[in-house]
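Appendix B. Extra example for self-study. Work through it before the problem class; the solution is given directly after the inputs so you can check yourself.
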Amino acid sequence: MSTEALTAVPPTGRRRTGFSLLVLGLVAAIVVATLLSVGIGAVPVGVAECWGIIVNRLIPGTVEQTWTAAQEQIVWTYRLPRALLALLVGAGLAVVGAVLQAVVRNPLADPFLLGVSSGASFGAVVVLIAGPTVLGGLSLPTAAFLGALLALALVYALAQRSGRLTPARLVLAGVALAYLFQALYSFVLQQAQSGRAAQQVLFWLMGSLGGARWENLPLPAAVMIIGLGLLLVQHRGLNALTAGEETALSLGIPVHLFRAQLFVITSLLVGVMVAATGAIAFVGLIVPHVARMLVGADHRRMLPVTALLGAVFLQLVDLAARTISAPQELALSIVTAVLGVPFFLWLLRRRA
Amino acid sequence: MKLTVSGVRVALDGRPIVQGADLEVGERELVGLIGPNGCGKSTLLRSVYRALRPTAGLIAVDGDELTRLPSREAARRVAVVPQETPDDLDFTVSEVVHMGRTPHKRALDRTTRDDDRICADALARTGMAHAADRRYAVLSGGEKQRVLIARALAQRSGLLLLDEPTSHLDIRHQLEVLHLVRELDVSTLAVLHDLNQAAAYCDRLYVMSAGRIVAGGPPGEVLTAELIEEVFGVRAAPVRMNGSLGFVFDRLP
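Solution. Structure tokens for the complete assembly:
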């Protein structure tokens, strides 16, 4: 061993500082985007006032009140839970996309590839169209979640052979079931008596954060934080998996068990997210690729950056969806597609 | 570190591929496993690193049966350079080598200075220290192979398995990689394709044919024109270059 090598290799300081700066920048971007999102709307509230309202609510009496009670009501009761849900779901969709891209070793993988979101949408459509009485008084999120679980169980059953999941079978089973569930909910939609209900369903299917309230935030928040935490600590296993199944095995990763665990965690996350916000497309596909271009494929850096980027991205998308053709709200998938796809294509071409 | 394989049988989809293999790799030995395509040598190697489960027999490292060890523990004993590694991995060289530390880490463990030192050492031993910050994808085939060997070294296992480490390399890189492996001074079992290279670099050779090991010993004793004709189905004429053994081959008449 030469001393030259020891000084040449270890912690590449430049990159570590770059990474810390990037993370700090993204956190700052999240704060700014959230304040903007909370302030902009039919009743505008200044950034300073938004900050004051939030801080004052958390630690009462610390900020002098320069806002009206109505403003406080709007910011605290409606806009803040919505903004927090946007951050959570944005981070969740992006991380799940990144993990699935490693699990099925396919750069096109995203949370919707494996049929789970179609299953969730099917459950939601049944409740929305037929009324809550059909499934014994299930709420929409519960029905969506059960749909996601049903799809998850079916994909898992179809994709496994003697306890082993292979990426190819996982993708095939997922895509096939996605088509099946899409056909099922399209059929239910077509049979719908009321055009209004059908329209409501279509809007929900394409993603909306409009339903966010403090009282329905804890469950998605808890599931997302635990789920994301579990995924974020798997960076070594995910790296190994990216380098190939045999490599992962030789590095001591029990590949089949690991893959099954990741599949279950990501599916549960998708189920909870679809139940809370409907199906928001493109975030899970695009954000991980952007993160990889910024910090490389090492999941130790890539996953946190993916989560932060996803959070900022969805916050801005929701802001755009609310303001572009106000007072009408656009479905989030329209905005993610219009913003995301050209950007993505530009990145791909630039890289090639 | 010593590897003992005895009476191992492996089946793929119910078809017997390895039908009773016995071999040993001693402390710091470089042992070659050779044989024609489909003879079961890669299958046998894969069962040593637990990608396949033998239907019978025993695989032990220093007396501990590998199949009974937890995966992480097994990976700390045996490191592998597998045949298939994606060419376009979007990692830096240093990140690829750090993967070798995986079996030493629990979920919440951080990468320590020790890990950095071990990885730097592994890169230095394979002559790739200068490339630590380069992207793996842009390296040449020979450089990639060196990086993968460095990753295996960073695992700090006592036994190294190589599955055709020189395939896809040009002749200069083939010889460089083999030379490097011999200089490593680690117990190594390598599946090799080229008989002359196997003869030149290995301490001992095992010859596999139709799922069985049919010969084993020092290259000069094992590789005879008769055995090569019988196992590989070609005519072989021995030649000597700088005192080392080699063969020229021709089709059987």
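Self-check: The CA atoms of residues 206 and 334 of chain A lie 7 Å apart. If your reasoning did not lead you there, revisit section 3.
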